[in-house]
Amino acid sequence: MDFITKLLAATIAMGTSLTYATLGEIYTEKTGILNLGMEGTMLMGALAGFATAMATANLYLALIVAMLIGGLLSTIHAFLCVTMRANQVVSGLAITMFGTGLANFLGQRLGPASNNYNLVGMNLPSKFDNIAIPFLKDIPILGAFFDVSVLTYALYFIIPFSWYYMYKTKYGLAIRAVGESPKTATAMGLSVPRLRYLYTIIGGMFAGLGGACLSLSFTPSWNDGMTGGKGWIVIALVIFATWNPGKAVIGTLVFGGITSLQFSLQAAGVKMVIPTQFLAFAPYLITFFTLSAMTILNQNRKGSYAAPSALGTSFAIDDK
Amino acid sequence: MRIVVEKRDNKSKSAAVLIPLASFAISLILGAFVLLASRSNPLQAYSAMLDGAFGNARRFQYTIVESIPLLMCGLGVGVAFRLKFWNIGAEGQYVWGAIGITWVMQFWKFLPVPMLLPIGLVVGMTLGAVWAGVPGFLKAQWSVDETLTTLMLNYVAIGLAEYLYISAWKAPLGNMGTPEFPREAWLPPVWGKIHSGLYIALAFVVLLWFLLYKTRWGFELNMIGKNPRAARYQGVSIKRNIVLAMLLSGAICGLAGSMNTAAIAHRLTKGVDGGYGFTGIIIAWMAGLNPFASILVAIVMAALTTGADALQIAMKLPESMGEVLQGLVLIPLLAGSIFVEHKLKVIKKEAV
Amino acid sequence: MNQQTQQIPVVRMEHITKHFPGVLANDNVSLELYPGQVLALLGENGAGKSTLMNMLVGLYRPDSGSIYIRGELADIHSPQDSMALGVGMIHQEFMLVGNMTVAENIVLGMRDLPFVPKIDEIRARITELSKRYGLQVDPDAVIHDLSVGEQQRVEILKLVYRGADILILDEPTAVLTPGESRDLNKIIKKMLSEGKSAIFITHKMDEVIEFSHKVQVLRKGKTVNTCDTAGVTPQDLANMMVGRDILFSLDRCAYNPGGVKLKVDHVTVDNPIGSRPFLDDVSLEIHRGEIIGIAGVAGNGQTQLTEAITGLLHCTSGKIFIDGKDMTNSTPLQVIRAGVSHIPADRGANGVVGDMSVGDNLAMKKYRTSEISRGAVIKRSFLRAFADKLIEAFVIKTPDQDTCVKFLSGGNIQKTILAREIDSCGGVLIAVYPSRGLDVGATEAVRQNLILQRDKGNAVLLVSEELDELQMVADKIAVMFEGRIMGIRDVKETNTEELGMMMAGATGVRRNA
Fold first, then answer.
1. A137 — contact with chain C (CB < 8 Å)?
2. For tag attachment on chain C, is the N or C end more exposed, with fewer CB atoms within 10 Å?
């Protein structure tokens, strides 16, 4: 049982990072913008957070900077996709390329002189430690949810709020309309460009925050490319959650669990029947099958499982 | 006074040429800012890159060698893009090409040695084709979104390859990597470091140009890409063509992987996912799906990479600078792409 | 309504001018609307009616001119501005979000909505308003489950909920059955009695006569005439709209049909969503040298019938024969090879590939043949010669054959399609709403071509919304309603009254305003 609790703890820790980014991307995609720049944005967030924490020893400032940097990168994406109506797939890939390159680059320039300006191998003065809630933390298995960092505790409020915001408030209504039918939204007086900018930038801020969770809490360090493809998993998780913020956590737990399983088993020295690499790519394979199955089974009805109709398309008022 | 974006009433040919040039210039300027911010002299850096990419015969050869898999992936992705099909899985198809040729080189001992290379290339192509054909079929038959399926399959392929070169097919000596391919089965060189993969790549440029611009099939692909509904009304089979195009697309990317593995690494090992697939997507887009333009674009992107290597040596800058510049090249290009079909209009007076 | 308020127009548009690239949409147009009144804005497609109204609701801005609402100068920048002034528009294409509920659509974008909208209050108000005006609708129903008529009611509710008392309706009866049109009339009348007013945008003369008090006729962006509806006849209106006497009959050979070319035999096409099938036991025969017209309000299975014949839609049961050969559920290519030409509805979406050249589009039927290809290779020289020939024969106005077809005018796009389909016609020509959106000259050209093909001995199937077009062109008319053929009549042996009744399911009688 201790193993399962440990596994759950590791899952939650990694899942925190994924969940922030996933929530952000859900909001972005719900307005119709596909942001494949997640990987680069998360990495830049991780770097920005780490570098700030190294320089100022202020963890909360580090989070803010990470969010600002993430938002900045996504602003570029929003500008290209909304104002310049560029191809959203290529724009996202460009941001990822740029963000990944820039993060790795700066990671070797923003460190202390003593380490040749390199941030790799440096240790943080402090990190987000776990805070345990007495009594609750002793519950078998589920106690793991109450022995987590403040970043995760924040999620316990943010996730339900995100769901509420999307489905019960007038702003969520506007978001859903924009992503489904930009023409109608415009006729009803909503500004499609403004909303797309807003939620793409917010999505980027959350991605930056998710990246910072990695470098400031999960594996408190900086390494080249330390997000290791998590940004791509986020894209998968958004689909898995059927673009519903309330469901985002299911995917992150499942995928985080599989990935953590891989490491935990290795650490426990258990002889693997399934090779570790299979566990590594299992999340992607599962998403592939889930997405295919969901689409195949949902052929005729545009149920609540469908992607926002306007996802990936550009919109302009003069288009006839 | 307002500035408004307005649709043109015909395609601007001059914009199609000027915009990429202007964008490239802007990206050089943006890159200069990044360099300045990290205490480096941009002019010095750019000339070091230029020198590193083309400075002498050997460097020039390296750049060309680097451009070959980029060109192939760009061509492969371009075939799919013609149908507005986002084959983001080029990376995975490339990896399967590498796996395929390794499989033949390592295990098909029943073949005479001179046959290993050609058979290996064919097997690599086939595996790449299948890896693209599956998402293609899912899209054709059930409208499963191809951006996401192809993306996911990348990581499955990469993970599988890792499994192979770390455990299942690993050579007895050393940390990782499969045994080296037999020397006689390596891709023969053409000039210095440049290998005969160059001929194959150029052959494919011509082949694809012919296929896409001159044949009935190319005409149909064009129709499907630009208006699938109207194509269907004209009797064109959308489903069959999506699958065929994806098979071809994957085959070319797979061939890129096989070729490069046979020419450079001579084994399956870490680093097989070198980003050629992803960059291929960018190249296809930048080249506007024109096979001949892809050659130029591939060389430019390759030059950015080899030039960046030189930066590291010459100016102690991290090689990730190359990636930064590649990303930076794209951003102004993306911003400028709107001007091919739109123009700016200044509205002087507001009506009351 | 007291006399004083009747003096002040509730809407006054003065000297409105609007340019678009290459076209002067509105040229010094002025308009007045009084309370409790319905004004019909009549004109052909492209006359400038929708543009004018779009400026009233803030979707466009006039280049010059002013708008006064209830006597005060209005500065309308957006739909929200116009809504705040009480002006709302129901577009031809409904502005509804398919996967949201009626209630959500109605309150979408309202400025004074609280952060968390009170759903119960909204529901109650919707129910109250629907009762008051006879707009039966369930606030929790999802839009894409509703019928077109119900969706229109949601659109009306949307305006009323937000306090609109100046309603603009763009071609409102285009999607309604005669029964639903009458209901709409009742709803409008109830609103008028409360002091609301309305503007109808239309190109149908009978709509003008039935619904309006005053009519303003636009032609090529200018006002031609404004008068009381009571004092005009359809002929007067037609002349004003078009500027000359409309051709009410066309030259044709005597009706001398040959053998049966196309036979539709008890075809049923199920609808995967919803209970009513697209086609319900439909049988039809078309002879050589004959034009069969399909009448009916759009959405009653007409398009599905043509798609079933051309292999684009799967038949659940029944058979289709061409020249006696069973072609049921063949592929589109097989049907094309059997000699069937198809001029589809929605020409931009289905008939041409907008981003390809005029020449390429002309070649799309015959590119597989030796006229254009040698084996698998397309010979460009053949294609160019072929395209030049067709451009000349059909007088297609284009700078050259390399221009992208999307840059052509609607009439020339239709000519491109006509040219392609008629040139390759091997016995059967199917035309679906071919004169939609075309000016009178282009429309005449289309009709002449259809008759020409019929005189040559081809079998022609014409689907049209305009009864007068069918009466002018067809030899026989079949009326479709809810996927069934209500009846087939010789054009000389029937009249508008009988056809209209069948279009409505053979119930009810048309009432005058």
1. no
2. N
